[in-house]
Design goal:
It is found in: Endomembrane system. This is DUF1232 domain-containing protein. Its main location: membrane. One of its GO terms (cellular component) is endomembrane system. It is a multi-pass membrane protein. It is built from three helices and no strands. By secondary structure, it is mostly helical. The protein has one domain. Helix 2 runs antiparallel to helix 3. The chain is elongated and about 60 Å long. The model has no long low-confidence stretch (mean pLDDT 77).
Length: 101
């Protein structure tokens, strides 16, 4: 292989590693948020987004091919957002604090 081809292969590997790392960080945040909500007494039906996202990430069926983790990251972000909304509704997480100027 030429030097240019090796450069492209290494660049693609680095991009994939960064995207996979981002997906892993989101998954860890999702698991921590789920545990927090469970301890706070949020109903189980509000945590279905967590289980759906986890099953989607693990399953071999994807909207985009596996080297592209954008769909997995999107599903994890939606599940994380859903869990945060459930936390706000349960009173566990308050909205942003507004301070007088």
């Amino acid at each position: 292989m030429s030097d240019q081809a090796w450069t492209l292969v290494v660049l693609a590997a680095v991009v994939l590693a960064v995207v996979a790392g981002f997906a892993l960080v989101l998954l860890v945040r999702l698991v921590r948020t789920r545990r927090l909500l469970r301890r706070a007494g949020v109903p189980v039906e509000n945590t279905l987004a967590f289980w759906g996202a986890l099953i989607y990430v693990i399953s071999p069926v994807d909207l985009l091919p596996d080297p592209v983790y954008l769909d997995d990251i999107g599903v994890l972000l939606l599940a994380l957002r859903s869990l945060h909304v459930a936390a706000e509704r349960s009173g566990l997480r308050k909205g942003p604090v507004v301070r007088d100027g």
